Amino acid sequence: MKLLITGASGFVGWNAVRYFVDRGFYVQPTFHSLSHYLQNHTERVRLPVQLSVQDGDAVAEVVSRFQPNVILHAAALARPQAAHPPDILHQVNVLGTQHVARAASAVNAHLIFLSTDFVYPSSAGLVNEESLVDVRSAGYARSKLEAEREVKLHANRWTIIRPTNMFGIGTHSSNCFTQFLDRKWEAKESAPVFSDQTRSFLYVDDLLSAAEHIIARGEAQSETYVCGGSEALTRASFALRYATFNGIDPSFCNVMESDQLAGYIGGSSDIRLDTAKLRGLGWKPRPLEEAFEDMRQKGVRENPS
Ligand SMILES: NC(=O)c1ccc[n+]([C@@H]2O[C@H](COP(=O)([O-])OP(=O)(O)OC[C@H]3O[C@@H](n4cnc5c(N)ncnc54)[C@H](OP(=O)(O)O)[C@@H]3O)[C@@H](O)[C@H]2O)c1
Q1: For residue 245, is it within any domain?
Q2: In this structure, is residue 126 part of a structural domain?
Q3: What's the gap in Å between 192 CA and the centre of ligand 1?
Q4: CB of 54 sitting under 6 A from ligand 1
């Protein structure tokens, strides 16, 4: 099975290379600006290719050269709170996805697109694939909704996954909550953790296992799945569980409401994911402490930099 991963230098893509190589896939990673070393270099990983998804011809060329069976499209401007100019967000997240979708169709590859649970209203509560999305959303969330439309319009075999906030091991610049906590605690600083943002925190390997289950179905059925972890928690509760697991003094979690942090632009939110549809494929997210233990084992083995 040949898998092309866009955004392989990012948090999800970096983990995806390891995950799928370990499972016997032949992987072509692509990156944009950061040529991170890719762990587990084996004959099943091709040299990473530099690729801007904004360049439609380049995307078509790289995809056509590798002839993947599956494309995991993880490249994006992926930080919801970052203030990207709207035209740049559109070019990377929307047009970039269109380019990847067209290229996937041209080689009849199955496109797996990573969207987000931010497509739901911030106080949506428990949601599934049938729940109403937030048509008034702006910025990152809007770009992801528009990108979903590009996937449906231009890919002939596609799956959309809407993951929630993820955690796991990664590189030093990783876009994930546990890396944020680790960085703070390594610097002997307390981490601001919000008591008014609730999510079904997802271990990145559980997202990748969901993608693996979807790939194993064979022909894509053009489906959308929400993907979240085994329990819904506030950021503060999650951080306290992570601190306890790692023997960190709980006082290093500075529990507050989101409007108490100067300069923070996201507000309170409550989005919990009902993953019955994904579970119907035989997928199951692991319990939180099991995920933390897995991270501990992998962190020792791979020591990412
Ligand atoms: N992390 C989460 O908790 C989370 C939650 C829900 C959904 N998601 C979604 O999952 C996907 C992966 O997120 P992530 O956390 O891995 O993000 P990330 O760590 O910020 O990585 C983003 C990746 O996109 C690449 N990229 C940025 N601009 C590009 C461009 N113009 N052309 C090609 N590649 C470009 C980056 O390359 P360089 O670094 O080389 O510049 C990097 O590899 C995204 O679609 C995100 O929206 C993430």
Answers
A1: no
A2: yes
A3: 24
A4: yes
The total number of structural domains that make up the chain? 1
Query: Bridge-partner residues for 197, per DSSP?
Result: 269
Is pTM beyond 0.90? Reply is yes
What is the position in ligand 1's atom list of the atom closest to the CA of 173?
Answer: 19
Q: Does the beta carbon of 17 lie inside 6 Å of ligand 1?
A: no
Q: How far is CA 141 from CA 77, 92, 134, 164, in A?
A: 11, 13, 9, 12
Q: Among 140, 280, 146, 285, which Cα is nearest to 223's?
A: 280
Residue 140: what residue type? Y
Asked if the structure places residue 185 within a domain, the reply is no
Q: 10 CA to middle of ligand 1, Å? A: 5
Structure tokens at 266: 């996201």
Contact (CB, 8 A) for 228 and 272: yes
Low-confidence ranges of the chain (pLDDT < 70): 35-41, 219-220, 300-305
Q: Is the CB of 34 under 6 A from ligand 1?
A: yes
Q: Residue 191: its pLDDT value, please?
A: 97
CATH of the domain at 75: 3.40.50.720
Output the residue whose Cα is nearest ligand 1's atom 12: 74
76 Cβ inside 6 Å of ligand 1: yes
Q: Which domain holds residue 41?
A: 2-173+202-230+273-290
The structure tokens listed for 66 are 């590798």
Please report whether residue 237 resides in a domain: no
Closest CA to 229 of 119, 71, 117: 117
Distance CA 202, CA 173 (A): 19
Q: What is the pLDDT of residues 267-286, one digit of tens each?
A: 899 999 999 999 999 999 99
Q: Tally Cβ neighbours within 10 Å of residue 198.
A: 21
Is 74 near ligand 1, meaning CB less than 6 Å away?
yes
